[in-house]
Predict the structure.
Amino acid sequence: MIINYFTDNDLYKFTTMNAIQKKFPDAEVIYRFVNRGKTLFPDGFAEEVKKEIQSMQKLFLTKEEEQFMRSKCYYFDSVFFDLLKGFRYNPDEVTVLQEGGELKVEVRGLWYRTTLWEVPLMAIISELYFKMTRQKAQNIENTTIAKARQLVEIKAELSEFGTRRRYSFDVQDKVVDILKKHMGSYMKGTSNVFLAMKYNLTPMGTHPHEWFMYHGAYFGYRAANELSLANWIDVYEGDLGIALTDTYTSDNFFLSFDTKYAKLFDGLRWDSGDPFSFTEKALFHYQQHRVDPRTKTIVYSDALNLEEIRKIKSFVNGRIHDVYGVGTYLTNDVGVKPLNMVIKLFECKPKGCKDFIPTVKLSDAEGKHTGDPREIALCLATLRIPPGDSNKNIFSL
């Protein structure tokens, strides 16, 4: 088995699951695998993925995992823990097909249940790919120690975000161990709940793009950001206060991020586009709303490496609290080419709706819009965003 622990998953999947079951317990969704890197998978790959999926139905929340989550994840109530204790993965929710080297994966079912599939499925696909293509990891320890020491040297606070595209569980396990030993207080935590428990770290994460995508599809794109923030606050009452900005572009997000939200949320997460432009926009926005930026945080998290972190940290220069969420660069920098893939929400069916509604994700980066091209065009027109050149590389299924 590749996934051996129920909590070998990212925290944001559990926080999103909790919010969904409180706000939209009857919503149904469809997720799909997007192979951005056009990777060709070896013969028999889909069958091996199916075996891993079948094995996951044996997983359950252990007493040790529950005790850890109760101690660290104080924002979850007892009702949610009862839900987790009774939860079992249902392989019937996942369809895996292979045509030649092309892999197709679809997850379909109740949203509060199916949201937990995304991260472990990606971890399975990544680890299985390197295993079946016989690509070996190299220099894990020396490479990670060197990175840890340089991050400390530049005083960069780190959150490890590498579960989804890791080379393997064992590599991520070793990386987190090394980072904790060599980074001290600069190692702020990991998104992986099991590894946070194993190494007594803080599990890190808040909400994903799918939270905003559902609101946009159901309530309309103009209301999506504000309603997403309002519903998140209603569930968590100020905890988990890092707001993701780029589901419908950050410029559109800031239109909804008024004084109330600017003061209530602890900060923002940058996840696409130009980090320097984003930083200036965030600083200006806080100042315009009479909020001292030095009391707020930006979590930078898009495909970062050490060089990029150095540049961003120098640019920020203490004007706002900066934290760096780093994933693939830590857990799959082992001498192989990491997979460029995502699993995204593509359709949703809110309670009372007869049909599924398409969902879309825009981006601050060129060529990274995701969803049905016609729905993306509608979203852009509704929000009065020029389509530009980014429509040339829309990811659709």
Notes: Residues 140-331 form a domain with the nicotinate phosphoribosyltransferase fold (CATH 3.20.140.10). Residues 161 and 327 are 4 Å apart (CA to CA).
